[in-house]
Amino acid sequence: MNRERFQQITGRYRDLKIAIVGDFCLDRYLEIDPARSEISIETGLPVHNVVRVRSQPGAAGTILNNLVALGIGEIFAVGFCGEDGEGFELKRALAAQPGVNLEHFVTTPLRRTFVYCKPLVLEAGQPPRELNRLDSKNWTETPEELQRDLASRVAALAGRVDAMILMDQVDIAETGVVSGPVANAARAAVVGRPDLLVLADSRRGVQHFPPLGFKMNAAELAKLSGSATESLQAVQAQAAELATKNGQPVFVTLAEQGIVGAAPGRPAEHIPSYPVRGPIDIVGAGDATMANLTAALAGGADIPEAMQLAMTGASLVIHQLGTTGTASVAQLAELLEEGVMRSE
User: Fold this and answer.
1) Which of 216, 217, 327, 343 can pair with 313 through a Cys bridge, CB separation 3.0 to 4.6 Å?
2) Whether this model's pTM surpasses 0.85
């Protein structure tokens, strides 16, 4: 990709409208100073003294953070939080982001706010060290009335956006935002508007989704296809077959080997990842990949161009320690200049 093409694609970002439908959580970091450790008089157990608390949108919110960093014009958050303090923090963090539209983000007494609470030990001269997380989740099925409400919001946005992302982050099916009715509403949107880009991802694999565009890893592809993906060629063949079957693009991330992508009726293509340039934290790499794939495709990129931008974004994010990072257009350009982008 040369500089002119990069600028052409990313120059369209400010005019794009993208919806993120999924499980928004609060990433709450508790920064611990080990120099202030003590023993509790009451329990006799070690005390981790928190010297700073910082919160930011996580899970689907991490994709949103990356779209904000890319300068997307308007980002619709479709999801829910509880009527609790964590929900207040999450909505405040979302509302503080430029371009974020919360008219379809629901505050409900029927659910609690999804939280990843991350104790983080910060020691001079050492990388941040995360202790056991303290998570808050919903363990029961999302009430039907809330499922129907969210599905109607997906339908309402189908004609207003250039692309839609579905992010299913929950461990137990039907306990989050992307329930069956919501996924089916996204499929109906694609059927009614074939030019609409919809990419879906789930931590449990995409086999429960209707035919949509997919982002997954190699293990999820093997589970879906029922056969092992032992070689790059096998991944490419299966990705191409699935894209043609669904009539939608398919992307398969391969960790240090990069990414494979296929458009319907076309052979799959492969883009390698960047070499590691120092200590890394892979948390957030998949979300950066999803954000960059969606933005690039909505901005007119072809499959290889979108994957190249996605791998650039993921490389930038994994080298940000102690946080779930993002990558701006300027940062993408800088790394591309170092590696592959040439002026003509």
Assistant:
1) 327
2) yes
